[in-house]
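User: Structure please.
Assistant: Input sequence and predicted structure:
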Amino acid sequence: MPSLLTFLSCAALALFAVLLGALRIRSSPCTVTVLPSSPPGDDAPSIIAALQQCAKVKGGRVILPKGYTYRVGRVMEWELQGSRVDVQGTLLFSDDLSYWINSCLPVDFQDQCAALRVTGSDFTISGGGFGGIDGNGQAWYTYSAGESNTKGRPISMWVDQAQEGRVVGFAVRQPQFWAFFVTNSANISMHDIYINGTNHDPRALNATGPNGSKWTQNVDGVNTYRSNNITFSNWVYQGGDDLVGIKGNSTNIVLRNITGYGGNGVAIGSLGQYPGRFDEVADVLIEDVKLFPANEALATIPISSGVYFKSFTGTPYGVPPNGGGGGTGLVRNITARNIHVQDVTSPVYIQSCLTYVEDGGPELCDTSTLRYETLRFERWEGTTNGLWTDGTGVTIGAKNNTEIAHLACSAAAPCQDVVFSDFNIRSPVGPATCFSRNAIQ
């Protein structure tokens, strides 16, 4: 009788040998240590093989040791059931933009996609305080050149359809797009997280696109969508967009002890982008947050907002990801307290006629039916920079803005029960003012 090896092709034998050499397996409990391939190649197959071995075993563990770089040249999907993944080394995603644009995992929001999808229950992903992801983001920053929502830019880690999951001590350096996205999930916590997306291409300094020299556009820290009971604590972020974005049907969200450098601060939205969809954001606590400009090697990236709210027009204008509208919803019971801002453009901003389409729809600004109510801003301190924002995170105009809050609510759905207490923000260009339209205390 011929042996099993008789039926294996040379290519299969080679792959089998590579995987055996890259994995060190210890049973009871199931533990696999993955080493990078030698000579260097795509390590995704070895990582996937290790996960298939132990990630669905209760108490199973997959270890990528400190000091190693794992090259990732293809999409990965991790299903974790009662297991732990220790990414003590670095997952270095390739800069093969053509592959990612054509093969990244589709996400049901704004035509986005992801490089890594995590699903499952009762799991832990730990970077040990130093390990994590290198997204090779500079290739994407140069490719997009400040353009918003460039098709095919993948989210670094997408947590989807997950329960009781923890991401701890994890770093995402140079994310391709958003560092994290949490969707369709419950009881997820992310603690001790470091994110840094910094542009090093000097051509950005002379750029004339819609976002000027801010080529780290869309480098968000994390976004949530259709998720409940999500906690983010002890974060340090540097980038050019939303530190945290809380999107539709996100409830019981906690942000605590967050420090951000550059970008747009904390966003509630975007909301109301899709006709026929009801977006609810409720019971959000944002506390102990510090926001500063980012001093990059090439330029200073301002911080455009402290906490801001953004919803599309009630009448559609353009199509997603940059256009849209016609949806409705409710934002309620949002508390932002113990907030420090330094040289921020607009500490609190409500934008109810959002669009990223150029010259888009100002006549539709009072059509949104998405309501804002019971918003609390407590114990704020710091300074503005005297500049203006267009409500999408872009700083514009002369340095003569004295506003410390800008509440541009829709006439079709006035904001209700918006309260500021112990709000000590100073403007460098004159006595502080507040703009309010269709807002009822």
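Residues 1-18 have pLDDT under 50 and may be disordered.
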